[in-house]
Write a structure and sequence with these properties.
Blueprint (H helix, E strand, L loop, with lengths): L1 E9 L11 E4 L4 E2 L2 E8 L13 E15 L2 H12 L3 E4 L5 E6 L8 E8 L10 E19 L4 E8 L2 E4 L14 E2 L12 E5 L2 E2 L4 E7 L3 E5 L3 E5 L4 E9 L2 H9 L2 E9 L6 E12 L12 E9 L9 E6 L6
Parallel strand pairs: 2-12
Antiparallel strand pairs: 1-2, 1-8, 3-5, 4-5, 5-10, 6-7, 7-22, 8-9, 9-10, 9-11, 9-15, 13-14, 13-19, 15-18, 16-17, 18-21, 19-20, 20-21, 20-22
Length: about 325
C-alpha cells in the first residue's frame, strides 16, 4: 500500500466534513499526521473473573507534520492554516499580494485526507484506502534556507478526529467529488534570496525561521477534543562567513529590524518575512587552522512599541484566494 494523494479542505464546523469542500491537493515529501491510541488495564486482581482484567482504549493522540519544498502558491495555504485568511490585493497582472496578520486568533479547522493505492491486494482494479483527519489545525511552522540550495519547510499539525474507508460501521469515502483548486507547483528559487538586517544586506549561508502557536489539545469527557492556541513565538538561527557590519550588530546586543525576501527569476512572485524587533544572541565560534571565521547565532523576535506583530508575512503569487 503506497500513498498517492494528499489533500486539504476547509471545514465549516470544526471536526466535521464540509458538505461541498474545496479540495487542495498538496505536494509534500511527507504526510506525517498520525493517530496513536492509548490503552489501560483495569488492574483487577481476579483478572479471570467475567468482565475483569479488561484492557480498554482510554484516548488517542493525533499530531504530526507535513514536510515539503516551498512552492509560492502552496505556502499560502499553510499560512492560511496558521494565521487565517489574508488581506489580498489584485495586482492586475495575474498576480495577487497576500498579507497575513499573525495576530489573528480563532482560525478555521481543516480536513486532511490521505489516499493510498492498495496494490498489495489481488483486486483488479486495486481498491484505494482512504484515511481522513478532521479538526486539523496548524501548530508550528519551520522554514530553513541555505546557500547550498536547501529549501525545506515543516508544518506541525494537531487534529481531533480520525476515520478511514474501512471503518465498520460508517466507512468514509474520498472527498474527490469536491471542487478542486489547482495550484502552480513553482519551486522557490533560493538564488534569489536576500537578507537585510537594519536595511543593510547581510552575507549569510543559512537562515532559519520557526513559528509556534503554542497549540494545545484538551481531552473532554465523552471522547471529544478541543484544540486551542496560546501565545505566538517566533525564533530561528542564522549562519554565515564573518561580516564586520553584521558582527558589530550582534556585539551591540540591540533590537534589530530583519527582512528575508525570496523571489522567482522574473520577479513576479515573492515571499517576504519581516520582523520589526529581533534580538540576536551573540556567541563566538572556534578558530580552526585553515578555515574562515564563521558567525553562527540564534534570534528571537518580539513585539515592538509601535506594532503588535512579531512577524509580518507578505506573499505574491498567482493564487487569487484560499477560501
Amino acid at each position: 500500500m503506497k500513498p498517492i494523494k494528499v489533500s486539504l479542505a476547509r471545514e465549516t464546523t470544526c471536526g466535521e466534513d464540509h458538505l461541498d469542500p474545496i479540495l487542495y491537493p498538496v505536494c509534500v515529501k511527507n504526510s506525517g499526521l498520525a493517530m496513536t491510541e492509548t490503552s489501560e488495564g483495569d488492574g483487577c486482581i481476579n483478572e479471570h473473573a467475567d468482565g475483569g482484567g479488561e484492557v480498554v482504549i482510554t484516548g488517542s493522540d493525533i499530531n504530526g507534520s507535513l514536510a515539503s519544498t516551498i512552492y509560492f502558491e502552496q505556502v499560502g495555504l499553510y499560512f492560511t492554516m496558521l494565521f487565517g485568511d489574508p488581506s489580498t490585493v489584485d495586482n492586475g497582472d495575474g498576480t495577487y499580494t497576500h498579507t497575513f496578520d499573525t495576530t489573528k486568533r480563532c482560525k478555521p479547522c481543516w480536513s486532511l485526507e490521505n489516499i493510498f493505492n492498495n496494490d498489495d491486494d489481488c483486486v483488479n482494479p486495486p481498491v484505494d484506502y482512504v484515511e481522513r483527519y478532521n479538526g486539523v489545525k496548524a501548530s508550528t511552522y519551520a522554514h530553513e534556507v541555505s546557500g547550498r540550495g536547501l529549501n525545506t519547510l515543516s508544518l506541525g499539525l494537531v487534529a481531533s478526529k480520525f476515520r478511514t474507508s474501512r471503518d465498520n460501521p460508517n466507512p468514509i469515502v474520498a472527498l474527490a467529488t469536491g471542487k478542486q483548486v489547482n495550484m502552480d507547483r513553482f519551486a522557490l528559487d533560493t538564488n534569489r534570496a536576500t537578507v537585510k538586517v537594519n536595511n543593510q544586506p547581510a552575507k549569510l549561508s543559512k537562515f532559519g525561521i520557526n513559528v509556534d502557536l503554542g497549540m494545545q489539545v484538551d481531552e473532554l469527557i465523552g471522547n471529544q477534543k478541543d484544540v486551542w492556541e496560546k501565545e505566538l513565538s517566533v525564533n530561528g538561527s542564522v549562519a554565515g562567513l564573518f561580516d564586520a557590519v553584521l558582527h558589530e550588530t550582534l556585539v551591540k546586543n540591540l533590537k534589530n529590524e530583519v527582512e528575508i525576501k525570496y523571489e522567482n527569476a522574473d520577479n513576479t512572485k515573492s515571499l517576504t518575512y519581516y520582523m520589526k524587533e529581533v534580538q540576536f544572541a551573540y556567541k563566538t565560534t572556534p578558530a580552526v587552522y585553515g578555515e574562515k571565521l564563521m558567525l553562527d547565532t540564534t534570534y528571537i523576535a518580539s513585539r515592538s512599541a509601535t506594532s503588535t506583530e512579531r512577524l509580518k508575512i507578505t506573499l505574491v503569487n498567482a493564487q487569487a484566494n484560499y477560501a
